[in-house]
Every structure is written in structure tokens, then in C-alpha cells.
Amino acid sequence: MCNKGVHFIVDFCRKKALLPQNFGRFTMQRRILIVDDHDDLSSALTEVFSKTGYLVKTTESRDEAVRLDGINDYDIVISDLDGDTAFPKNDEDQSIESCLPEPKGEILNRSHVKAFKVCATNFRREEFDEDELKNLFETVLNYKAQFVDEANTVKQLHEMIEFEFPSAISLMNSILDYLMKRVEKVGVINTENSNLFIALDEAFVNAVKHGNKFDANKIVRVTAEVSSKEARFTIEDEGDGFDVASIPDPRNPENLFKTSGRGVLIIHNVMDEVTYNERGNRLTMIKRKISEDVISH
């Protein structure tokens, strides 16, 4: 199951090691759609999910997925696509493909793009089970993390990673761990010498806790654009937003014992660029690669 410089290294005799302890105990039968143009991740996840009682549908292309009847009826849509075929051919297609990868800004060379997305916006239907959602995300990301990039492809890689899910704080560690692995793999940071995880942790918690107020009927969107030069993160919630200027400055002695504002300060100190949209519910953070010259000094 090797294709285009990507090799799957899962030992199928030890698959259970990749599964969360509680995986498979859930009784509600949910529907999962996997869109994978190489059949790497698709084969592994189909076997695992089917054995635990989920209904799994797979397609080999974005176009095939779009043509499915009831694409919005799937509880989770997992996309793992490469190159030009990862994104819609025109803007008109995006409205019906909301759970499939979407381009963020201009990408000069789409042939080097890898798009990975886990969309669970429909998971909130009927009874919401956060433990089940957490286990599903952990399983997907554990398997996805087993892929190895060839050294000669990493420098040209432009990776688009997206997660959309109901407000669930328990998903934070698996999502942020995966993002940290990808950012380090491409060479933007060395995780041992970086506080990037702390900044992303603050932004994630703010979206779930303060933005959506733990409301599972509201969605959190986490995106990452990773290249050899920088990593751009966007975290968006469906809350009312806030005025960043109104946050008390924790460096002011008068605010010494106030907890509000410390997370925003951490984010600004760790990231190279931080911006909020006008409403205050979407945060964009950029971490640039430190040049070798700076590191050596």
C-alpha cells in the first residue's frame, strides 16, 4: 500500500495498540465516509471501524464523494487527498462540499499539496457522546500518524489540515499532538524547544470554553497550513466573539491577580503574528521557521 512517496508502516498484527481503550463499546451505529485517493488510510480505518459496528463508505476521489446521495448525512467525513484533486474546481462547488477540504488562500503549486480533514459537524445529531467522538478522533489520528514522509518530498510539501467538530475539550490533546508532529516533521520548529503547544492549547480552550461555552450544538474549526517556511493556524468558534482591546493587560500591576488576558498574552509571545477577525471569534496565528543562522547564534 505504498504510493507517491508515502509508506504505511502499521503492523496489522498489532492494530489494537492504536485503538483507545474504550473503542468499540458504543452502541449507536453511526455512518463514516472516508475519501482517500491512495487507499492507504482508507483500508486500515475501514477494517477497524467496520469491526466495531460502524457503517463505513469509501470513495477514491473528491468528485466521487460529491456525487454521493446524502453526503451531509454522514456523522464523520475523513478526507486524505493529494494535489489538484483535493479541492473543488470552482467556488460554486464549495457550498455542497462543506465537509470536504477547502482551499485557504492562494496556493501557487497545488501538485505539492496534501489535504487532510476530519469533519464531524453532523456528529451532534441525536444523542451527543463526547467519549465516542474522542475515541474516533484518536483512532483516526493514531493511524494517520503512522505514515512516513520521504525526505525529498518534505521541503516541497504544503499541507492543509482541517478539523471541524462539536465543542468538546477532550479532543484537544489528540488534535494538537498531531499538529505538533506535522509542524516538526516539515521543519518549522523543534517541539522540545518551543512553546507552540502552549499557545495552541490556550487558543483551543478559549474557543471551546469561552467562545462556544461547551455547547455541543456549536462547532469549532481548527485549520493548519504547514509548509517548510511557516505554519499558519486558525481556530474559529460560533460564539458571540469579543473585543480583544477590552482584555485587561496582565502585565499591569493592577491586574496582577486577574486570570483574564494571560492566555492572549501567551499566544502573542509565542507566535510571530496574531490576528482576530472583526467579530472576535476567529483567531489566526502564524509561526515562522527560525533560520539556521539564528539558531546557530
Explain this structure to me?
Helix 5 packs antiparallel against helix 6 and helix 6 runs antiparallel to helix 7. The protein is built from 8 helices and 11 strands. The strands form 2 sheets. It has a 9-stranded mixed beta sheet with strand order 3-2-4-5-7-8-9-11-10. Strands 1-6 form a two-stranded antiparallel sheet. By secondary structure, the chain is α/β, with parallel strands linked by helices. It has a single domain (6-243, 276-296), classed as Heat Shock Protein 90, CATH 3.30.565.10.
Blueprint (SSEs and pairs):
Blueprint: E1 6-8, E2 31-36, H1 41-51, E3 55-59, H2 62-66, E4 76-82, E5 113-119, H3 130-144, E6 147-149, H4 151-154, E7 158-166, H5 172-186, H6 196-211, E8 219-226, E9 230-236, H7 262-270, E10 273-276, E11 282-288, H8 292-296
Helix pairs in contact: 5-6, 6-7
CATH fold-type name: Heat Shock Protein 90
Multimerization status: single chain
Task: Please outline the major beta sheet.
Answer: 9 strands, mixed
Overall pLDDT, averaged?
83
Supply the number of structural domains: 1
Structural class: alpha/beta
Discrete helix count: 8
CATH architecture: 2-Layer Sandwich
State the shape: globular
What order do the SSEs take from the amino end to the carboxyl end, as H and E?
EEHEHEEHEHEHHEEHEEH
Query: Into which percent range does the helicity of residues fall?
Result: 25-40%
**Highest CATH level, the class:** Alpha Beta
What strand order characterises the main sheet? 3-2-4-5-7-8-9-11-10
Low-confidence stretches: 1-10, 293-297
Beta-strand content estimate:
15-25%
Let me know the CATH homologous superfamily.
Histidine kinase-like ATPase, C-terminal domain
Q: Please give the radius of gyration in angstroms.
A: 19 Å
Distance between the termini: 44 Å
The total strand number stands at: 11
